[in-house]
Specification:
340 residues; 20% helix
Length: 340
Amino acid sequence: MTNTIYNSFGYQAEVTYINDFDKNCDEILRQSKLLASMDMNGNENRTMWVSIPFTDGPKSIDNLNDLKYSELEKLAISIFRRHVEYFDLKTNHRSGAEWWVQVKPTSERDEEVGSIGLHYDKDESMASTFGLGLFPTLSTVTYLSHNKSANPTIILPRTYHDAQDDDIEQIIMSHPEKGKHLAFDGRLLHGAPANPQLRVINQRCILDEGDDLRVTFLVNIWTNGKPLDAIPLSDDQRIHLSKGGAQYISMPQYDDFTSGAIACLTVNEDEVESVNIPFVASEAEWIEEEETEGGKLMNIFAMTVPFGVQPSATTLRLRYGDNNKAHIIMETLSDDSESD
């Protein structure tokens, strides 16, 4: 098992755990839930931006607790700093962190509750206005809660420019666990689809029931510019987030990110259950939907998951054999099914 699997996965992917995160997680969790409930000018999908304060570079940022930022912004800066150093990223005065929170309900059986469809992280405004695909250098997920019924994060070694009909030989599946931090190439297709079969493995490796919500803190690292629609928090929003919270919490430093395990499972053809994850093209891509005589075209990610196994870690790399590789197919979404 390893925490970084660039050579075997083909793209950068790493899992770590933030040391002593439980001490500060309650306040981060409180602010995340509060931010999710705030009016963001009618745009619930609004993402935030924090520029990185430079002296001689991102590694020499002053003590974060001396900066006039919210705790969420400080955490985003800490994550940015760590990955710039760890991955030796080249930055400039336009570099920064795009961040937001996701607060999703959980359900043991419901196939719709809390779903985050497969998608590409990108500059949404540039994509919709100009049809340009601009992607972050890295995408990250920090889990602030865990629950046996929470949807796992799925990462496919597939970028927007890859041929859609190519077989997918492996995927990463990360089950929520408080304090776990996942980082991966920002160009990759990923999501947290709601599917009971995907949660079964989670139920074997998460021992306690945990929280009722799936709460994640997302940070995209942009090394050469800001997404057009990402905005800084206002001073009023910072004050609102801090009211009633802890006066001081420490932020993770470089050495506080401890390597976590990625367990590799070979998915044998005779020990699997099939899973089909539909996602409408417009929800995952910025091109116009294609129409057919029967309705709109829909992408389906077809994969298999092992059953009857006891994983040794909450982050898995599933490898597929020659006869059961995962793949993306196109099917027609009829007008009748779309209206259901």
